From TrEMBL, chain A:
Cofactor(s), names only, from the UniProt record: Mg(2+)
Positions with a binding annotation for ATP: 44, 51-53, 90, 93, 98
Name the record gives this protein: Succinate--CoA ligase [ADP-forming] subunit beta
Entry similarity comment: Belongs to the succinate/malate CoA ligase beta subunit family.
Organism: Archaeoglobus sulfaticallidus PM70-1
Quaternary organization: Heterotetramer of two alpha and two beta subunits.
GO CC annotations, alphabetized: succinate-CoA ligase complex
Reaction(s) the record says it catalyses: GTP + succinate + CoA = succinyl-CoA + GDP + phosphate; succinate + ATP + CoA = succinyl-CoA + ADP + phosphate
Cofactor comment: Binds 1 Mg(2+) ion per subunit.
Automatic annotation (TrEMBL), chain B:
Domain spans labelled CoA-binding: 4-100
GO BP terms: tricarboxylic acid cycle
Protein name: Succinate--CoA ligase [ADP-forming] subunit alpha
Source species of the chain: Archaeoglobus sulfaticallidus PM70-1
Gene: sucD
Gene Ontology CC terms, in alphabetical order: succinate-CoA ligase complex (ADP-forming)
Chain residues that bind substrate: 159
Pathway(s) annotated for this protein in UniProt: Carbohydrate metabolism; tricarboxylic acid cycle; succinate from succinyl-CoA (ligase route): step 1/1
Species lineage: Archaea, Methanobacteriati, Methanobacteriota, Archaeoglobi, Archaeoglobales
EC number of the protein: 6.2.1.5
Family: Belongs to the succinate/malate CoA ligase alpha subunit family.
């Protein structure tokens, strides 16, 4: 799960990392009250997407009336597909210098990687390209933890000015503590700013927690808000792996690899998938039914391609779910179906029997390649 | 020969009394896998499909001299089950469980290495050496004994490709589903090394997907160390950045881990990459004809 900036900063602050004065507002009146208190402010839209500054999601205000005016502009605005409903109103800082510190998982080395840069304010890829000499990385063993010498190496190798050593070193330690304690996948302070008065503050913050750990990270789980499109949220609530895409062919498959491969085949045939939907392993008839409902409630879907290779998943159970769905809701669009693997014969027989008395436009195919071709043909192009 | 498991493998099933554990223990037995025991704390003394159940792995190993274990334990307890297995002397651990917290997986990885054991998974379909042994949940009916080694991050795609090969009359030496999580016990290179040394394996199929750089690293290894031909497939050409595509590990982050970069790296290393699972099987068939 991704935390909002204001939530991430709450945890930073709790662990002794200094943050600017700020308060969360959910309407214009609240913004006005907070601006009266803080003076010059920055209005930061709270959306779970990177690059919001460039997308117009961060606005500066010199006084209260400007804050109100900007808040009106910001509330309800669409930032990269996310609607602004909360604004963090923060004191405007007098910035001397921007830096970067981030911690994430290192897949290749099976460790935790700490990245420090003595410059900041842009994304880390950009820093790496523009200022490779200002950036330093260390892989930390998840067994032995972060050692002091590694922090020293980070400080020296990033070209960090000596006067910041003590404070930055303490911030790295605290951030690492947060990363481990809350089982984060990523945490980042960008920028970590030095103000003209010499204070070092986390001016922005990211904290992403491993979903698989939420059962024991109660404090985080409580803060969870599902984000994404309406259908994505609905799918997540029902435990279905669903991602909305911008094409017109609805895809249902079993297994992540098979689902991705089915999307790719559609693309190779010249079509465009409308979504990724993985029913997982050993799906129940109910789950199949729910998946069909979900896909067909997306108005951009012109044809559905169901691609099942049963292992743990049983084709007869999939057929049962499909028939239930077809009986309950009227599906006008064509459905291409490929059933193979465990209990294939039983599943195919059930479908054949059902089709005798149904007007669903169902096309049975033998292979996934054939199915993709058929689906693209029926979609009538992109 | 085969890699990792063969007819001499003696396995236990951790979580054998559970729904999945019991069902798949039966299937593995039916396939001819030498399952010698099961472990469920508190259920020692029971029998499942005629197999004795023990309270601890230590006890199971002492009584049966098992050297492998398949884990069907819920995510909250799976990490502990792997620790228990390797600390009890188990050499090959196959962890089927999906949804293990990644910080647990980091520790698991190093624990298994410390003990010089082999971990397959987590979040994987297991491993099969057709005709010899199967540890996992694969639909074993579609496999056939032969000389193609398969290593894959995706369960269902493995089945699809093996099925296509079998339909062409081409069998497999060992098929390894390494799993879809970010931190896994054995990666492509670990398995490729074993296939390179295995006298039964003539051609290797590598099935990858978006996320991470394991395929790119594998490509470097193939270019410098592999003498056997490798055929590749990468899923997720159309996957959008920043979205997890079902697997915890299948995500394009910071512009890295795209299918395109993986295909490019593999092709540069001399790997022939199929555009569809069917094409992968065709390429393998053509290689045999030569």
């Amino acid at each position: 799960m991704k935390l909002y900036e204001y939530q991430a900063k709450e945890f930073f602050s709790k662990h002794g990392i200094k943050i600017p004065k700020s308060k969360l507002a959910t309407d214009v009146n609240e913004v006005e009250e907070i601006a009266k208190e803080l003076g010059k402010v920055v209005l930061k839209s709270q959306v779970l997407v990177g690059g919001r500054g460039k997308a117009g999601g961060i606005l500066k205000a010199q006084d209260v009336s400007e804050a109100v005016e900007k808040a009106k502009e910001l509330f309800g605005k669409d930032i990269k597909g996310f609607r602004v409903e909360k604004i963090l109103v923060e004191e405007m800082l007098d910035i001397e210098r921007e830096m970067y510190v981030g911690i994430t998982l290192d897949r290749a080395n099976k460790g935790i990687v700490i990245i420090l840069s003595s410059v900041g304010g842009m994304d880390i890829e950009e820093i790496a390209i523009k200022h490779p000499d200002k950036i330093s990385k260390k892989v930390v063993s998840p067994v032995w933890g972060l050692r002091d010498y590694q922090i020293r190496e980070l400080l020296y190798e990033s070209g960090m000015p000596k006067e910041y050593f003590k404070e930055v070193s303490s911030i790295i330690k605290k951030l690492y503590e947060i990363f481990v304690k809350y089982e984060a996948e990523l945490t980042e302070i960008n920028p970590l700013v030095v103000t003209r008065s010499g204070e070092i503050l986390a001016a922005d913050g990211r904290l992403n927690i491993d979903d698989n750990a939420l059962y024991r990270q109660k404090e985080m789980a409580e803060r969870r808000e599902l984000a994404g499109s309406k259908l994505e949220i609905e799918a997540e609530e029902k435990g279905i792996n669903y991602v909305k895409l911008d094409g017109n062919i609805g895809v249902i498959a079993n297994g992540a690899g098979m689902s991705m491969s089915t999307m790719d085949l559609i693309y190779l045939e010249g079509g465009k998938p409308a979504n990724f939907l993985d029913i997982g392993g050993g799906a129940s008839a109910e789950l199949v039914e729910t998946s069909i409902n979900l896909i067909t409630s997306d108005p951009s879907v012109r044809v559905v391609f169901i691609n099942i290779f049963g292992g743990i998943t049983r084709c007869d159970v999939v057929a049962e779910g499909l028939i239930k769905a077809f009986n309950k809701i009227k599906i006008d669009i064509p459905v291409v179906l490929r059933l193979a693997g465990t209990n294939e014969e039983e599943g195919k027989e059930m479908i054949a029997e059902f089709m005798k008395s149904s007007d669903v436009k169902l096309y049975m195919v033998d292979t996934m390649e054939e199915g993709a071709k058929k689906a693209v043909e029926l979609s009538g192009g992109v | 020969m085969a890699i990792i498991i063969d007819e001499n493998t003696k396995a236990i099933v951790q979580g054998i009394t559970g729904y999945q554990g019991s069902f798949h223990a039966k299937r593995m037995l039916d396939y001819g896998t030498n399952i010698v025991g099961g472990v469920t704390p508190g259920k020692g003394g029971m029998e499942v499909h005629g197999i004795p159940v023990f309270n601890t792995v230590k006890e199971a190993v002492e009584e049966t001299s098992a050297n492998a274990s398949v884990i069907f334990v819920p995510p909250a307890f799976a990490s502990d089950a792997v620790f228990e297995a390797v600390d009890s002397g188990i050499e090959v651990v196959v962890c089927i469980t999906e949804g293990i917290p990644v910080h647990d997986e980091l520790k698991l990885y190093w624990k298994v290495r410390e003990k010089n054991a082999v971990l397959i998974g987590p979040n994987c379909p297991g491993i099969i050496s057709p005709g010899k042994s199967h540890l996992g949940i694969m639909p074993y009916e579609i496999f056939k004994e032969g000389s193609v080694g398969i290593v894959s991050r995706s369960g269902t795609l493995t089945y699809q490709i093996a099925y296509n090969l079998t339909n062409f009359g081409i069998g497999q030496s060992t098929v390894v589903g390494i799993g879809g999580d970010r931190i896994i016990g054995s990666d492509f290179i670990d398995i490729l090394k074993k296939f390179e040394k295995d006298d039964q394996t003539e051609i290797v199929v590598l099935v990858g997907e978006i996320g991470g750089a394991d395929e790119e690293n594998a490509a470097e290894f193939i270019a410098s160390e592999m003498s056997k031909p490798v055929v590749g497939y990468i899923a997720g050409i159309t996957a959008p950045p920043g979205k997890r595509m079902g697997h915890a590990g299948a995500i394009i982050e910071g512009g890295k881990g795209t299918a395109e970069s993986k295909i490019k790296a593999l092709e540069k290393a001399g790997v022939r990459v199929g555009r569809t699972p069917f094409e992968v099987a065709e390429i393998v068939r053509d290689l045999y004809k030569k």
